[in-house]
Write a sequence for this structure.
């Protein structure tokens, strides 16, 4: 959702089988996605920041983990 949208803290209690433990953040935020590495060894790094620009969390997903 856009930075100007309000957060939905109730989503923390909703069932979501796709949510990774420790990744829910119920305040306004934005994300930076970085893709690095050679073609068959790519790594996606997801970093979530609060509205002040402070890092909240980050996760890296390797291509090999998606196959």
């Amino acid at each position: 959702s856009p930075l100007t949208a309000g957060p939905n803290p109730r989503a923390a209690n909703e069932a979501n089988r796709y949510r990774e433990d420790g990744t829910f953040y119920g305040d306004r935020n934005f994300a930076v996605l970085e893709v690095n590495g050679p073609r068959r060894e790519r790594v996606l790094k997801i970093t979530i920041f609060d509205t002040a620009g402070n890092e909240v969390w980050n996760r890296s997903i390797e291509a090999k983990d998606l196959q």
Notes: The two ends are 28 Å apart (CA to CA). The chain has a mean pLDDT of 90.
